[in-house]
Design a protein that fits this description.
The complex is a heterodimer of chains A (310) and B (222). Chain A is an alpha/beta fold. Chain A contains 11 helices and 10 strands. Chain A is elongated. Chain B is built from 11 helices and no strands. In chain B, helix 2 crosses helix 5, helix 5 runs antiparallel to helix 8 and helix 6 runs antiparallel to helix 7. Chain B is globular and about 65 Å long. The chains are: A alpha/beta (310), B mainly alpha (222). Chains A and B meet through helix 1, strand 2 and helix 8 of A and helix 1, helix 6, helix 7, helix 8 and helix 10 of B.
Chain lengths: 310, 222
């Protein structure tokens, strides 16, 4: 092999330079990426009757534009995983009315509260319980005056279609044919904690403890079961209603666990706060309550349902 | 279908590769050529991101750069917004996880360069920085490119560090791997499978490139 010196430019050198230039382009593109938010907000929704929406929302819309003159393009909402189906619907309603797009991040309430406390730019934090909202307020990043309980969460016991055994209530989980039971991680997911409380109050926790598998949040737990990797799931009724995946379910009595006091708080200041408050108002409005009810939530002020399982 | 996560991932990975390449290759050169106290420690520390679980690494970064940390507060007072949970945070996350891969590959390539070439360059009076820039690094070229490509692949695929430091905000910090995770959570299997296939495709292309580049050893071995 010939050993040449000095080194002539070769194709490797050319390739290296090409790579560096490419990276440079990427870098500058990244720096200049003050993204003007895509106007997806204009996407019309096929859901619900607009006529019913207008009266509840119109005052808010006026309030936003009058009070600040600024229209926020995009609102960032951190929501507990059980809220995904209901809040995505509310988000579409909100953007149809205010042309403010609502972007959601879903996760366990515990994880989201940590993100909010550590500086995540969310405008609204909708938790599945009240404790994590209190944490956020205590850390000084939530506006205490906007704290509002918008719903009470409900648990459901879901089993896949292939299940032989008929299920009536949580006690059926004592049966060893349910080899794996998916729940959300009780350490940071309120629905996971409620599931554990339910099993404890039903006095079968000791019988099922070694068969529990944890999802990172409640939708993760549900996915574990619907993908065939668990034989039952104790998850939020809202997710099961949104997509029962051909399985069967029973609603867990609300008394079986401590109330899932789903509470939200506005976590932003200035111009964005009024828009965030408008979204919070929508959740608690007549329209919002109708949507939440559709997904099985109990609402503050509503009469308690009779225990009609099945 | 919303392809924002793909473009974000490519942008983030490209930027992260620049940082990882600059720092990684510089460190690799120092570690390969330098003899100084604390070299072993520096080498170990620089490789920590390979060993640590990504979530642990992400947590440390969040504590170091978060809104309540001194660095985070300083950043916010200068730029008016927090550093974490932004695309910039995603770049930092990807850079940190990619850097050791560049470093290790580059170091092996630099060490494989036949020292006689460097000696020869010194005999004609080239200063040490020109020896590095004109002899050592070009001769280690293939290895360096392979390392950088590997770093790019690692940056593109990062999940754990990014999700801790940049969060999962669609349209802002939701990179490809996080979008796949989110689609699975949402029960949107179609989206999850399409995004996964694209990501897997890119990974295979990059790995084929890495193999082609690293099959032929550095020129010093010819």
């Amino acid at each position: 092999m010939t050993k040449r010196f000095p080194i002539r430019p070769r194709w490797t050198t050319a390739l290296a330079w090409a790579f560096i230039v490419l990276m440079g382009v990427g870098l500058s593109a990244n720096g200049a990426s003050k993204r003007t938010t895509t106007t997806k907000a204009t996407k019309k929704t096929a859901t619900s009757t607009p006529a019913k929406v207008t009266p509840a929302l119109a005052p808010n819309t006026v309030a936003i534009t009058r009070a600040t003159g600024v229209r926020v393009k995009e609102l960032l909402v951190a929501g507990a995983s059980d809220l995904r189906p209901a809040f995505e619907e509310l988000g579409r309603l909100f953007s149809a009315q205010t042309s403010t797009k609502v972007t959601f991040t879903f996760g366990s309430s515990g994880q989201l509260s940590q993100q909010v406390i550590n500086g995540a730019p969310f405008d609204v934090f909708a938790s599945a319980d009240i404790g994590y909202v209190d944490d956020v307020v205590k850390a000084g990043v939530g506006d205490r005056s906007t704290k509002a309980t918008y719903a009470f969460g409900r648990l459901a016991l879901w089993v896949p279609a292939r299940t032989q055994k008929r299920i009536f209530n949580v006690l059926d989980l004592a049966d060893r044919s349910f080899k794996r039971i998916a729940i959300a991680n009780p350490d940071h997911a309120p629905y996971g904690l409620a599931a554990v409380q339910t099993l404890q109050s039903s006095k079968i926790y000791d019988l099922v403890e070694d068969r529990l598998v944890y999802g990172e949040n409640v939708s993760d737990a549900y996915r574990i079961a619907t993908s065939g990797n668990a034989d039952a799931a104790l998850v939020s009724l809202s997710l099961v209603i949104a997509n029962d995946n051909g399985g069967r379910y029973v609603v867990v009595p609300a008394e079986a666990h401590k109330p899932l006091e789903q509470t939200l708080v506005v976590t932003t200041k200035g111009d964005r706060a009024s828009s965030a408050k408008a979204f919070a108002a929508l959740v608690s409005s007549t329209t919002g309550r109708d949507v939440m009810r559709t997904y099985g939530f109990l609402l503050p002020g509503d009469p308690k349902p009779s225990n009609n399982n099945d | 279908m919303d392809w924002f996560p793909l473009w974000l991932s490519l942008r983030v990975a490209a930027s992260a590769t620049v940082f990882a390449a600059l720092i990684g290759i510089a460190l690799a050169y120092v570690l390969a050529k330098g003899r100084f106290p604390g070299r072993g420690l520096l080498e170990a520390v620089a490789s920590v991101p390979i060993v640590l679980p990504p979530t642990v690494l992400g947590y440390y970064l969040l504590v170091t750069l978060g809104a309540r940390s001194p660095i985070g507060r300083a950043w916010e007072s200068v730029f008016g917004q927090t550093l974490v949970f932004t695309p910039t945070a995603a770049v930092i996350a990807a850079s940190v996880s990619a850097m050791p891969f560049v470093l290790r590959t580059a170091r092996a390539a630099i060490e494989a360069v036949d020292p006689r070439f460097e000696q020869a360059a010194r005999t004609i009076g080239l200063p040490e920085w020109r020896v590095a820039a004109q002899v050592t690094l070009p001769l280690a070229g293939r290895g360096l490119i392979a390392g950088v490509a590997l770093g790019f692949a690692r940056a593109l695929g990062d999940f754990g560090v990014t999700v801790m430091l940049a969060g999962n905000i669609p349209g802002r910090t939701q990179t490809m791997p996080i979008a796949v995770y989110d689609a699975v959570q949402a029960g949107n299997d179609h989206r999850a499978s399409v995004l996964s296939a694209v990501l897997a495709g890119i990974a295979v292309v990059v790995l084929v490139a890495v193999n082609r580049l690293s099959r032929i050893p550095g020129a010093g071995h010819r």
